[in-house]
């Protein structure tokens, strides 16, 4: 996917929306955090996800936003398949904003 000059965070937000609608996004972020993500560069996005697990941090440091989004969606689906509360699983992966 081309970045079209968009900030890293906006690309991540867009990919999460494309993959899950608003379900995953609103499960992990409030309105303020979403607005911050939309304008965040890679470093600012990393700060927003500062409490995340090792894999997420590494993807944010070196990967593309689309890779991060696919990873988060895959982990959320795993949690749902394991009959785990989605919100609990996501909170474990991602810091509260």
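^ Assign residues to that structure.
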């Amino acid at each position: 996917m081309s970045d079209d000059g968009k900030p890293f965070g906006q690309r991540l937000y867009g990919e999460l929306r494309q993959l899950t609608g608003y379900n995953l996004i609103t499960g992990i972020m409030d309105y303020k955090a979403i607005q911050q993500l939309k304008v965040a560069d890679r470093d600012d996005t990393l700060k927003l996800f500062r409490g995340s697990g090792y894999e997420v941090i590494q993807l944010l440091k070196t990967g593309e936003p689309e890779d991060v989004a696919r990873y988060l969606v895959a982990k959320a689906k795993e949690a749902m398949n394991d009959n785990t509360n989605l919100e609990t699983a996501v909170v474990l992966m991602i810091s509260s904003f």
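The chain has one domain: 8-93.
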